């Protein structure tokens, strides 16, 4: 299931994600802009960025590093704006720290996939949006948008997939959209 556009719009415009905290809002916006995995977002560290080039390059840990596959993600100007203060004032290991965000030592140094998902679910509830999507689905939705605008190979490049077959799983085709429309309008 992809994220409903109306739900994403409601979360970003009515302050629902703001209610989850500015850190979680930046996390979801950054994940949307980059198409990164949720795990990459929560594991993000300042030293993974090359800010000497334009656009910046992010080298997140990759699930297939043990196979010699590295991932390089370009960071758009909009994403750079989101990250700028976090990267330069970061004296911590992780860019997104619930301990620092909440100014409470009982919180951990980094989000887990569970706590990140829970924060997004709480934000959906506060925004009056029926919960129905998770941070992981941001990757799928972004891949679908890139596929529709730039083609399958562009989605493959953005996601860092070695094969087009993997990208087709993530980036729904227009046919899927056509099937959904046919089902909904009769």
End-to-end gap: 20 Å
CATH class of one domain: Mainly Alpha
Strand tally is 3
Shape: globular
Order of helices and strands: HHHHEEEHHHHHHH
Specify the structural class: mainly alpha
So, the CATH homologous superfamily of one domain?
Intergrase catalytic core
Radius of gyration, whole Å: 17 Å
Helix content: 55-70%
Query: Could you give a short account of the major beta sheet?
Result: 3 strands, antiparallel
Question: DSSP strand (E) fraction?
Answer: under 5%
| Oligomer kind | single chain
The CATH architecture of one domain: Orthogonal Bundle
Residue-averaged pLDDT: 82
Task: Extract low-pLDDT stretches.
Answer: none
The total count of helices amounts to 11
| Order of the strands making up the biggest sheet | 1-2-3
By CATH, the topology of one domain is hpI Integrase, Chain A
């Amino acid at each position: 299931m992809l994220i409903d556009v109306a739900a994403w719009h409601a979360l970003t415009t009515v302050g629902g994600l703001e209610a989850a905290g500015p850190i979680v809002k930046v996390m979801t916006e950054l994940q949307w802009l980059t198409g990164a995995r949720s795990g990459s977002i929560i594991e993000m560290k300042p030293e993974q960025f090359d800010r000497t080039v334009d656009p910046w390059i992010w080298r997140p840990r990759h699930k297939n590093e043990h196979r010699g596959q590295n991932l390089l993600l370009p960071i758009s100007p909009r994403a750079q704006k989101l990250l700028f203060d976090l990267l330069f004032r970061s004296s911590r290991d992780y860019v997104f720290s619930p301990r620092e965000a909440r100014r409470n030592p009982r919180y951990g140094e980094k989000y887990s996939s569970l706590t990140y998902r829970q924060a997004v679910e709480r934000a959906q509830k506060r925004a009056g949006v029926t919960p129905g999507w998770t941070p992981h689905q941001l990757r799928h939705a972004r891949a679908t948008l890139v596929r529709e605008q730039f083609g399958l190979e562009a989605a493959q490049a953005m996601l860092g997939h070695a094969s087009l077959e993997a990208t087709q799983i993530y980036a729904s085709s227009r046919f899927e959209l056509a099937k959904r429309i046919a089902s909904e309008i009769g």
